[in-house]
Amino acid sequence: MSPSATVWLIDVFLWHRGRRYISGCDTHTLLVSRYIHCWFESEHEEEMYRNISGLILSSVMSGLICEAADWRFYGLDESDLDKVFRLPTTTFIGGSESALPLKEIIRRLEMAYCQHIGVEFMFINDLEQCQWIRQKFETPGVMQFTLEEKRTLLARMVRSTRFEEFLQKKWSAEKRFGLEGCESLIPALKTIIDKSSENGVENVIMGMPHRGRLNVLANVIRKELEQIFCQFDSKLEAADEGSGDVKYHLGMYHRRINRVTDRNITLSLMANPSHLEAVDPVVQGKTKAEQFYCGDNDGNRVMSILLHGDAAFAGQGIVYETFHLSDLPSYTTHGTIHVVANNQIGFTTDPRMARSSPYPTDVARVVNAPIFHVNADDPEAVIYVCKVAAEWRATFHKDVVVDLVCYRRMGHNEMDEPMFTQPLMYKQIKKQKPVLQKYAEKLIAEGAVSRQEYEEEIAKYDKICEEAYNRSKDEKILHIKHWLDSPWPGFFTLDGQPKSMSCPSTGLTEENLNHIGVVASSVPVEDFTIHGGLSRILKSRAEMVRNRTVDWALGEYMAFGSLLKEGIHIRLSGQDVERGTFSHRHHVLHDQNVDKRTCIPMNHLSPDQAPYTVCNSSLSEYGVLGFELGFAMASPNALILWEAQFGDFHNTAQCIIDQFICPGQAKWVRQNGIVLLLPHGMEGMGPEHSSARPERFLQMCNDDPDVMPDFAVRQLYDCNWIVVNCSNPGNYFHVLRRQILLPYRKPLIVFTPKSLLRHPEARSSFDEMLPGTHFQRLIPEEGMAAERPEEVKRLIFCTGKVYYELTKERKTRGMDGTVAIARIEQLSPFPFDQVKAESDRFANADLVWCQEEHKNQGYYDYVKPRIRTTTQRAKPVWYAGRDPAAAPATGNKKAHLVELRRFLDTAFNLDAFKDQQ
Hints:
Elements: H1 3-16, H2 27-41, H3 45-61, E1 84-86, E2 99-101, H4 102-113, E3 117-120, H5 127-138, H6 147-170, H7 185-198, E4 203-207, H8 213-221, H9 225-229, E5 237-238, E6 252-258, E7 263-269, H10 279-293, E8 302-309, H11 310-315, H12 317-323, E9 336-342, H13 351-354, E10 371-375, H14 379-396, E11 400-405, H15 423-431, H16 435-446, H17 451-472, E12 477-478, E13 493-494, E14 497-498, H18 510-520, H19 532-546, E15 549-550, H20 552-565, E16 569-574, E17 589-590, E18 598-599, E19 612-616, H21 622-634, E20 638-643, H22 654-661, H23 664-668, E21 675-679, H24 694-699, H25 712-718, E22 722-724, H26 729-741, E23 748-752, E24 764-765, E25 778-779, E26 794-798, H27 802-813, E27 819-824, E28 826-828, H28 832-841, E29 846-854, H29 860-870, E30 877-882, H30 893-908, H31 912-916
Parallel strand pairs: 4-7, 4-8, 5-12, 8-9, 9-11, 10-11, 16-19, 16-20, 20-21, 21-23, 22-23, 26-27, 26-29, 29-30
Antiparallel strand pairs: 1-2, 3-10, 6-7, 13-14, 15-24, 17-18, 22-28, 25-27
Helix pairs in contact: 1-2, 2-3, 6-16, 6-17, 7-8, 7-14, 10-21, 18-19, 18-20, 20-26, 21-22, 28-29
Main location: mitochondrion
Cofactor: thiamine diphosphate; Mg(2+)
Organism: Sander lucioperca (Pike-perch)
């Protein structure tokens, strides 16, 4: 046989790789890749050719190469089957034997790779890992189960199957997104948890779409059945605040004994919206946080399991983003087990229309995760694969994928008719014998169980369901809190009583400010060479500290440092956050002479401080923001911040904002204190680097524009999130500290500046940060106009950077005594009381809202009705700003300056608004 024949043979096999079978395992491709590897490791050419010949014979006998049906073409005859071949060191098919006849080699390889399990691992570039996998699947007799294991598996299959049948019987007209066709998912998950518990895992955090969620809640998390069943009662009243969510989106937190290992284990199933894979990074973030807080640096005690649908796994980009976080130092969870419920269809779309890759799991190959395909109608094969997956994760702390190749017996939901779009497939599915029936018949035939025992197991679980159903009728009120996936025990009470709705002063002592300032302006490591430009920055900081002032970077440093000294962990994540996109932060110093040697001064504040984590992220917004959101769920006693490189870029994380951050508490009674830092400002940098789209955040605020609220702290408690645009670093300092000192947690959206980072007037004195000071929701006029308020003709309300442009223009025009300017620092919840006080103070003044954003963007539509509510709509609220536009900013510098001049003229022209009438 010539080398050219070898090349031709490989080409044939690679061509075959494109073929897919309904089993989803395509095992001949895996067998071929396995052999090719052995050939190239062979030391002797003759042995290599004999192995090739054996492969051809094996392939022909297995019916895998129809094009090469006449194997005699290769000079082989039947006598070759009895020849004994020495086995290469890369295979484990021989067990304790080093040589086998060819026909036995073929038989053992077929048993390993051509049954109900297909293994993809040859792309892994680590010999130890490849050999580990080979040993698990090639060693003869590895897939053996004890009688007790088989009976346990049958009992779990009964629970999985009968749960769905019970729901279908009781609520046939209700959506539940049942698990029919993939019932082996439940024993699969329980096996992963059992094996992981055996390996020392104490906490498992899970995320999944709606398919089979109720079954997982019932039979894996072990939520009370009556709590699940009562959700189907249309007359159930809502007791908790908020909107709630549909039952197959809700999560659960439960600590219980694992009956297989007799060890305590905590299980969390994270709530998830219909954006199927959006929960993936959230789970990873919460897992990372739990590992961090318990000191689990290797993921031995806390792990994550992610469940996926085949179409979503291939189609959702967040899957790829999450995979690429898996091995990054500040984001790794040390291995996630991914389970794909591969039912061959996404809603009504065939795989040929849903993906370009051969398998839905191919995305996992980018991180060298092994992929185990298994026929879900073979429960024992499923269980074995899941054991191997759990062992892989415990051994190598890397991701692994279990692809349950199954089908969907119903339509997308129980009301859907799948025959509309997949008639031939569903004709076959209707003929398919349910997996429980097939497995029970197998065990009965083996004598592992009797038919009576099997029927008794069914009757026992049916009785459990009926009793729970009867108890569920007593439930009259729905408590979403029972479905909380991330509880914070002890946080909402103090000495057994609910916390006060007050917020203490967020100021610091002069000594504390000085101490943090000294650390911020120094290098607390010996023999550490920093960049010359950075030396100048640190000297400038030291000078500011001596002068008792702070700029934006130093104000942030003061807030972070003080919280760290108070024991609050801080995590700042995002693209380029260590230095800061605008080279202002420099929280990580780099030695200019030693590669990878860094220093974080903020971790040198005091011996008993909390740790500070600052980490540059991958170039991802969706995945990283989801991760940080999950991290913030784990504990309320931490400040978790995500900074966008530019505020504009949050739009690629919009799903996390819309589905989790904005309505999270309303849907899932789950508070979260995550902070979003979004650089924003119209500075002639074009439409992609100007606007953080404040109008989107304000549109989603839940405060009523027509109702004056009671008091400010209660206002914060009732809102869904807090939106601020601070105009000075002192107020930024206070709002960050307030985020932790409040007696509850709300997401905080901060429109951070760009040009103000170095603006000479955007400075704050230590006096504004001392004990007794607070965050100012509105900064009133304090200049000449405040001395004679009755002479003021115009009161301009504004927010953020435009304040400095307005004050400069006012001074240029000599109108300091006739035009007052007030800064609304907290936009939502709106400071009705302080806006009213300022309006009453300048009773003779026209009211103007001035913004640098376009009229159909920014804040105007949000603030106008609220300002009018404070004045009982006695006065109009005039607008000064850019005209409506489709793009958020112009890309032409000259046009930008013309627009700026135009709206400043409008803001100070007393006759401009008469023209508007």
